[in-house]
Amino acid sequence: MIHIRTGRGTFTFNGIGVEVCEGRALVKWARGMPSDHDAVQCFVVFWLPVVPIMAMHRSVRGGKIHDQPIPLTIDLLAWAFARRWLYLVLGLGLLLPALPLWTRQPYIRYALGAGLFGFALWLTHAFRNWDQRARNIRRLLLPHDIGSSDPATWPHVLLRSVPKPMEMFGTPTFADAVPSLYQGGEFNRAMWAARLATAIENRRQGEDLTNAILEQPEVQEAIAQHRRDASQWPRFGAFSRPWN
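Above: the chain sequence. Below: its structure as tokens.
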């Protein structure tokens, strides 16, 4: 059977071609809508990614797909490849007991199949937990005019357009703005300052400030609410990238 799939960034013929593979930080902002996420466009064989082409942040606004190029990093590449290749491991775990290839001992095949299937399920669950922090960061940033992308993943050309911290927050650095903002309950603005500090100033300090925001009880409750119902998300005063 001939199967052709086309779409934005996608063209495959019987599973061979180019596809956009979901990577990390999948966040759904409304019921029935696709998730915003970072992704990698790849050359695929039987729908499995083989060669990466480019990385992007993909979002859907007004019924249209918006792609923002971002740097292709090792961790994003690992997310995109693992998500699809794990399906193959799951399938092998299910099929192995029925394939007497190198041994006719059924208990060996069942044990190996169960082991593969269990490992793939565990790894799928682990990936979801590892990705939780990235999703929570974007829940605090809220949707903006570049989807729900994290400034810490933006390319240098986009970061160069960011105004100075004094202009945005009235502080000498982005990091200096964070404590007073989150102590005052301005968690959205605090997260923007923390992620810009991560991207532009000092990555380790910015990540520590990000963790301090995420540990606030009000933030944890708002994130839990959003996880229960995608139509509800933290509303701490949307910042929405006020620069061109």
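The chain has a mean pLDDT of 81.
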